[in-house]
Amino acid sequence: MMASSYNAKDEDGHITVTGPGGGTLRSKKPENTAFKQQRLPAWQPILTAGTVLPAFFIIGLIFIPIGIGLYVTSNNIKEFEVDYTGVDMSSPCFNCSQNFSWNSTTPCTCTIPFFLEQPYESNVFMYYGLSNFYQNHRRYVKSRDDSQLNGDMTSLKEPSKECEPYAYHDNKPIAPCGAIANSMFNDTLELFYNDPNGTKVQIPLTNIGIAWWTDKHVKFKNPGAGEANQNLTAVFQGTTKPLNWRRPVYELDAAANNNGFINEDFIVWMRTAALPTFRKLYRIIKSPSNGMMPTMPRGNYTLEVVYNYPVRSFEGRKRMILSTISWMGGKNPFLGIAYITVGSVCFFLGVVLLIIHHKCGNRNNSADISN
Amino acid sequence: MLGGDERRVDSRTIYVGHRSCSTTEAFIPPKFCDNRIVSSKYTVWNFLPKNLFEQFRRIANFYFLIIFLVQVIVDTPTSPVTSGLPLFFVITVTAIKQGYEDWLRHKADNEVNKYQVKVLEDGRRIQKESEKIKVGDVVEVEEDETFPCDLILLQSSRDDDTCFVTTASLDGESNHKTHYTVPDIEKDLESLNATIECEQPQPDLYKFVGRMHIDKNDQEPAVRSLGPENLLLKGATLKNTQKIYGVAVYTGMETKMALNYQGKSQKRSAVEKSINAFLLVYLCILVSKALVCTTLKYVWQSKDGQDEPWYNEKTQREKDTNLYLKMFTDFLSFMVLFNFIIPVSMYVTVEMQKFLGSFFITWDKDFFDPEIQEGALVNTSDLNEELGQVEYVFTDKTGTLTQNNMEFIECCIDGFQYKYRDASSELDGFCVTDGPVSKLQQKAGREKEELFLRALCLCHTVQVKESTDQGQSQQDGLIDQVDGLEVDAGLFHPPQEQRGFIASSPDEVALVKGAMRYGFTFLGLESKTMKILNRNNDVEMYELLHVLNFDPVRRRMSVIVRSKSGDTLLFCKGADSSIFPRVRQEEVERIRMHVERNATEGYRTLCVAYKILSAEEYAQADAGLRDARLALQDREEKLMTVYNQVETGMSLIGATAVEDRLQEEAAETMEALQGAGIKVWVLTGDKMETAKSTCYACRLFQRNTELLELTVRTLEDGERSREVRLHELLLEYHKKAVQDAPPVKAGVNRSWSSAGQDYGFIIDGATLSMVLNNSPESNSSRYKNLFLQICQNCTSVLCCRMAPLQKAQIVKMVKNSKGSPITLSIGDGANDVSMILEAHVGIGIKGKEGRQAVRNSDYAVPKLKHLKKLLLAHGHLYYVRIAHLVQYFFTSVIWFSFSVCLQNLCFILPQFLYQFFCGYSQQPLYDAAYLTMYNICFTSMPILAYSLLEQHICIEVLLDNATLYREIAKNAVLRWGTFLYWTVLGVFHGLLFFFGVRFLFSNPALQDNGQVFGNWSYGTIVFTVLVFTVTLKLALDTRHWTWINHFVIWGSLAFYVFFSFFWGGIIWPFLRQQRLYFVFANMLSSVSAWLVIILLILLSLLPEILLVVFRKPRGPHARQKKMMSPILSFKQLSEDGLLQSSRLQL
Q1: Do B146 and A22 touch (CB under 8 A)?
Q2: Where is the major localization of this protein (chain A) (predicted)?
Q3: What is the rounded distance in angstroms from the CA atom of residue A186 to the CA atom of residue B644?
Q4: B1111: distance to nearest CA of chain A, Å?
Q5: Which residue of A has its CA nearest to B278?
Q6: Is residue B477 pLDDT above 60, yes or no?
């Protein structure tokens, strides 16, 4: 398997020719340095029960409180999830999910009522979740052109090969190219609060701050960004929209700072998920500035969906998630449980080892004495 | 013509000075190669292809090349860069190194090839470049020049037609050797018309046969024999002679020097074999993983809508590809994705570790010997770790166990013992001490005495060193010291007669010196006349007629001289066994007693005999010798026959005893080796009694050791044939040593020393050859097995009367025995070369018997005592280091706990698991940059530093406690059990890392601003855990923290963090995808990511820490042992008076 050596040996078979009168003068006494004599001063820690056992207890004592803190924090996070795929006949979105066609001009909408049992305070984050959607598939992940998205004009006109088969359409370059962009999530979700007095109040949703700051400001740039009175329509002239999109990229949003490649919905989508079941941040519901009222009080709500995104073909699911956020992110009891478990195991091991060590130590001592 | 014509092809004909000797024959200049030495491998033009070809002949490189090509050709998940870059790095570094070395060789070649030499051509002296010398040229060489090619000496500026050379650069022997001109050559080389017929080039430095036909104008062509004494070898240096003329016979690559440097066989260490075996297993895992993944992928795809959902369509080309081709390329893709399980950088690191590590041996000042001003020498760095695995040590006696510094102790003349006590106090330098009681205070007749002393003075090949530098040698004496053969004759003679003797064997010098003490001084050899200054200060002259050289088969040498009175005398000296059968038996008994007593005392004994040759006898012998010397074919055999004919019917005059002192600390070293569980076998050409006493002196045999002898002597008592007796004895010993031995041999067979009886086994050469190459009765293999089993149960084995080849045979036999133990041979002389080459590790001692052993060895040390540190400290450490390195690479391990694999198994496992979650699309979990950098940068430096500097037990303790060596015996760290253990733990770690992060990502909103993490964040978290765990594991392992370890371990972690920021901090214009842009920074901004990283690192280190605690009870015990052993040795010491003094000095 491994041919034995790289070099040392190749030379052995060869003549080392000493020059005329060649005597070998190797008679140098080795230097007496600490390094060469392998006597560098060294710290020689010895892990003994004396040092390790306290470590176990300390780990236990630190981890258990952290775990409890995490668990409590996670439990305090409120999360609400609605599946609006429309698989069941009873589901309001059943029709939309059945009569799906990419070319339909009239959008299909459905309305899902739901009830929030608890009031949601501070900022509430609205996610859409997809299941069985392989955003991490290799062919999918690489099907993008980051230099095009970074505003490079040549890449805009000549998308990378990686984008195939979503690079050209009708001999026009697709902007943004690639499978990821092409399959961008395009359902529109709107939330209404059904006031107890009967009025239906639309909840204001912010689409700013849902993408990484660096993505929005550095990694993604519209072509020709920085020029005075930039006209996106003109810049994207000569390109065509991705096949599955209803609008071209320069019409994604009315606001200039959220249009084109720097549209935050687009940027969020372009950050491919790690697992086939994932969620992505859709909108933020800012808490009212007075702070007295909960952002979303307990009560009845309606979710209005413009149903554009087909998932039935690959047996996927679509969800809408409302969640509050803590310092540790979204709701996830895993970390808390893991910390508590590991902490208790460490503590328990510490106790067991202490007992074993104590007994063994005694036995050893007596054995030594008898020697 | 003589009988050489039948095989013309085997000889070459050279026309001296390109002058055809015979006018009748058409002169066809024969084609010989030119005198260019090419030691370089490459030229500028062929360097690249040839070097690449050679590098890719290594299977590992080839494997990575294939992977690289697959990546280039097939659409694979990782870019070709990920495997191409490391491969490129490895190949480039190796190519640069080899290129540099080759450049050095070119330089050296040029120096030699362009060297200006003087060639006689048409009566003029022409300056030529050395490389232009052609066979047949007459070359002039001046003092202190090296010979440009192999020359036949034609003319010397010295009067006695000799010249002196040293062959220091050839075989390291720095003494001057005499070479002779071809006899009867006319002074005028211009008119010399001669042809030389000699054998085709062959590598043996000490063999040469040829003859010269000298055409004199009007006479019959004279024929002269040519032997090695006429041949001046390329590379040797002319000394003490103003200039010589010689004719080139072998040139360039056909010179003996060039032929001699052809490669040695490669030795591979046991660790390397383990590596290869483990790699093979991992390759199987790799293939099966790829197979499983490919299968699962197609199963998964067969489900509707999975293969090509609307959001992720295939390109037209993908759709068109044949299904089976697709399956195949998928398989290859998986292979490529998982190929990191076979670490390319391991090869680099192992090589670097070995190469750099071997410097510590050369640097060790404990190996420096002030006497020869040299330290240890490492000829190959591949076997460093093998030094820690040695189970059998085969040692030579003379020059290795003993100093080979001979001192004349006593002699025995005609049955009377003469012991030299103090010359100056006795009138005539004689002193009789303890001769046979009945003849106490008696002396042999004066005539016998003088005959004996004359014999000592004449029967040798000693040269007297030129006294030109007398004053100088008195001042610094360095030259003499280097030769080690200085004789301070001033003590016995007027101080102006400073005299140095040069001889190929120190015994001879000791004998000549001994004779000098008794009043007979050898003055030198001048033009075939030996001069002796006898007791009455008269000069006696003897004409030296023939020297019957010493050889190890005959074990004797003789000279034939003619005295002034016209008597032709033959003096012979040799080993008793070879002399006794050739002398009159009635003389033997008187002397045998002395010889045997001397031998038991550890002296080297030689017997001296003589014979007066009658005129006819001499004429016959002379003719026979001349004939044999002229023979081109089988000269050796013919000479041997004549020698044997001549050396018969002699009369024994006496015997000599020469002491060969033990090497410094020989006994301690042997004791330490035995304590380390190493079995020591002494293989010597010496007599049994001498060798036995040396063994006792070295404490190889103790007083309570029961000796099992299997020698010619034990075989010969009784009337039965040797065969039968051999069989009997073998069975008896086998019963004693093997069957009746306490049944400890299974597991704890290394603890024999404590249990019961020690056995020592003695066998001699003759018996060994009976055991090994038995008669066709075919029970030889049975004998061999019995023999081996007995030997394996003995503490030490002594094999005496061994021929060099038999030494190698024994080593080979043990090497190939059950369990294939690691063998080490140590020796200092040319006769040890065969066993040095045969053993796993060959160690040469830079002794007095030339440099051949050193040249052929893997390691060379100045003294035997250095073996202790070499094995117990260096070997132990190297083994542990490299084993650990390998473990770490395959898996990454804690020293005492032999724990877990990470580096690769874990590294690759999450990748494997990820496939379940990304639809078997071969999506790599980590970014390509990380994949590439992982082994090269993030983790390789700490392990390299560790593997160079680690001392889990410090050197002093290792040296003091030889028993520690047993703990690593039999490749203890790299066993299949431990291998399995790390692999399993590695799987555990892989699962841990993957699922730990997997559960965290069940809600990817991990930032406090609600934003989510993608797949690259996922990979980065796992990767961070990996890098930190691997490095911290090593930190846990490290027992010896020097500043370098600190620097490298913390530095590489810092580097990882820095690199991640840097790599993710810039939009890299040359990258097609900015996958990691700010991923690392964002990860660090998430508290959850921090928490999961800490948790996982701690969890994976937990087993290690646990193991440390579980091992804990052993800790004090081990230390207890360390504390105990000095006390124990102190007890032994007080028991043994001999040892006491030496210990106390320590």
Answers
A1: yes
A2: membrane
A3: 108
A4: 9
A5: A1
A6: no
- What's the mean pLDDT in B742-753? 43
CA nearest B1097: which of B848, B902, B924, B955? B902
**Residue among B54, B275, B1072 minimizing CB distance to A160:** B1072
Segment B1137-1146 mean pLDDT: 37
In this structure, what token pair is assigned to residue B395? 């040692």
Answer yes or no: is B225 within a domain.
yes
The number of C-beta contacts closer than 8 angstroms across A and B is 387
Nearest CA to B840 out of B274, B266, B379 is that of B266
pLDDT at residue B78 greater than cutoff 80: no
Looking at every residue in chain B, the average pLDDT score rounds to: 75
| Record: contact A47-B360, CB cut-off 8 A | no
Are A17 and B262 inside 8 Å of each other by CB?
Answer: no
**pLDDT tens digit string along B1038-1093?**
888 999 999 999 999 999 999 999 988 888 888 778 888 999 999 999 999 999 99
A331 touches chain B (CB under 8 A): yes
Q: Binding site for Mg(2+), residues of B?
A: 396, 398, 828, 832
**Residue numbers of the domain that contains B1032:** 891-1112
Q: Is B579 exposed, middle or buried (0-12, 13-18, 19+ CB in 10 A)?
A: buried
Residue A103 at interface with chain B, using a CB cutoff of 8 Å: no
Mark which residues 233-292 of B lie under 8 Å from A by CB: 235, 237, 257-258, 261-264, 266, 268, 272, 275-277, 279-280, 283
Residues from chain A that touch B1098, judged by Cβ atoms under 8 A, are 59, 342
Say yes or no: B927 and B1033 in one domain: yes
The predicted complex's ipTM stands at 0.90
Q: Are residues B552 and B626 in the same domain?
A: yes
Put simply, whether A359 touches B (Cβ < 8 Å) is no
Contacts of A144 in chain B (CB under 8 A): 1073
What mean pLDDT is predicted for residues B160-177? 66
Phi-psi region of B801 (alpha: psi -120 to 50; beta: other; left: phi over 0): left
CATH of the domain at B718: 3.40.50.1000
**Could you tell me the two tokens for B310?**
């609307």
Give me the residues paired with residue A32 across strands. Answer: none
| B770 falls within a domain | yes
Domain boundary among B97, B132, B167: B132
Is residue B276 domain-resident? Answer: no
State the Cα–Cα distance between residues B578 and B909, nearest whole angstrom. Answer: 71
Residue B235 — left, alpha, or beta (φ > 0 → left; ψ -120 to 50 → alpha)? left
User: Are B397 and B414 members of one domain?
Assistant: no
A97 touches chain B (CB under 8 A): no
Contact call for residues B674 and B434 (beta carbons, < 8 A): no
pLDDT classification of B454: cutoffs 50, 70, 90: confident
Strand pairing class (B194-199; A108-116): unpaired
Are both B833 and B713 inside the same structural domain?
A: yes
Residue B182: pLDDT over 60 = yes
Q: What is the reported pLDDT for B1114?
A: 42
The SS3 call for residue B688 is helix
* Euclidean distance between CA atoms B3 and B20, whole angstroms: 22
Positive/negative CA dihedral, B1061, B1067, B1072, B1074: positive
- Give the number of domains in chain B: 6
Residues from chain B that touch A138, judged by Cβ atoms under 8 A, are 77, 918, 921-924
Contact B654, B593 (CB under 8 A): no
Predicted pLDDT at B1135: 38
Cβ–Cβ under 8 Å, residues A88 and A357: no
DSSP secondary structure letters along B932-952: HHIIIIITHHHHHHHHHH--S
Contact B1010 A6 (CB under 8 A): no
**B74 three-class SS:** coil
